[in-house]
Amino acid sequence: MKFDINKIRSQFPILHQQVNGKPLVYFDNAATSQKPQVVIDAEVKYYNEINANIHRGVHHLSQVATDAYEESRIKIQKHINAKNSFEVLFTSGTTFGINLVANGFGQILKAGDEVIVSHLEHHSNIVPWQFACERSGATLKVIPMLQDGSLDMEAYQNLLTKNTKIVAVNHISNALGVVNPVKFIIEKAHQVGAAVLIDGAQATPHLKPDVQDLDCDFYVFSGHKIGGPTGTGILYGKEVWLNKLPPYQGGGEMIKEVTFEKTTYACLPHKFEAGTPNIAGGIVLGVAIDYLNEVGFDNIAAYEQELLDYGMQQLSKLEGIEFYGTTAEKASVISFNFKGIHPYDVGAIIDKLGIAVRTGHHCAQPIMNYFDIPGTIRASFAFYNTKEEIDAMIEALKKAQMMLQ
Ligand SMILES: *Cc1c(COP(=O)(O)O)cnc(C)c1O
């Protein structure tokens, strides 16, 4: 498909509205993405035509719903290049996926074992590991961050020991947009026999991950950040690890046989999918992934790079601006502040002008502590944004600066 920005924008109904009397400029894509019409239609179609519980009934609709759900799993398997479809688990999002894995490790780890996360993590890739360490007596170690927002790879290699059992890092930072050298991180971890979980929540909107090429042991992401419904997500896990980990939740669908003496678990992926899942969401997530592939990840990457370059160029002209996360390889996320001005004040003023950005710590307080700031203003661009919208943000920021200085 040729990249036609006008056509793409016409497919996102929410973008064509006014906020506070101004055209909406939505630059909070790292928090959640907007949904194309095909996704909205698929959600409606599911409830109009397909709705039934899956796997349980022999009746027609149950079969249709089950088939659609399992087809979506296979679609996602292909999208991330997983070896087997049963290695692709439906979850409610990144947070759930990480908790599932960390909870399992909490039961496997022993005192003396070590878990490594990075300074650049979202809270949802820190707190579950703290739980796991508290529960097991394992030690949590942290890969330090450098001034430009990159991770210190030399320090990382020194942290790895034969006691390291799992390394959990993000593919792309949500707070700074920095792309991490995950392939290198995975390779080094495997050399000491540690597993690796990659938090792909910020990567999947911009690129197509290849889990076999990365050779990661777990890869997690959220549906709502890639044009899919809220409350959807994927946990990819290598077969050997999913077999090793204990189940997370008990209930229907995840068992083979239940007696009061002993329960045996269902095979993968059902072992980790207790209860009635978000059936509509799982099916529609497949539709969202189809849509992104139709737009094309090469097109998305090239266009977003243009927006990033243009945004950096225009923002750099503003007085007193300070950027956070200045590595060469970045996703279309710009984190910044103005000297002496609180990010919340800027965010509140530009919201009055129709500009939606995120202000705050972005669920990554250790990063803010490192830079000794209360938070940042974060503008995150998607492939349906435009340079004209960046211009509108720049004008709004100038007004905010004038009012706040
Ligand atoms: C958004 C995000 C999360 C949390 O995702 P949820 O959808 O809220 O579960 C975790 N890590 C990163 C890097 C994120 O961007």
Give a verbal description of the structure:
By secondary structure, the chain is of the alpha/beta class. It folds into 2 domains: 5-31 and 296-404, Alpha-Beta Complex (Aspartate Aminotransferase, domain 1), CATH 3.90.1150.10; 41-293, Aspartate Aminotransferase, domain 2, CATH 3.40.640.10. It has helices at 5-10, 37-50, 60-80, 94-108, 127-136, 153-159, 182-191, 211-214, 239-244, 279-295, 297-316, 343-352, 365-371, 387-404; strands at residues 18-19, 22-23, 25-26, 88-91, 114-118, 139-143, 164-170, 195-199, 218-222, 233-237, 255-258, 263-265, 321-324, 333-338, 355-356, 358-360, 376-380. A 7-stranded mixed sheet has the order 4-10-9-8-7-5-6, with helices on both faces. A 4-stranded antiparallel sheet has the order 13-14-17-16, with helices on one face. The longest helix is centred in the first third of the chain and has 21 residues, at 60-80. It is globular. The chain binds pyridoxal-5'-phosphate. The site of pyridoxal-5'-phosphate has 12 residues, from helix 4.
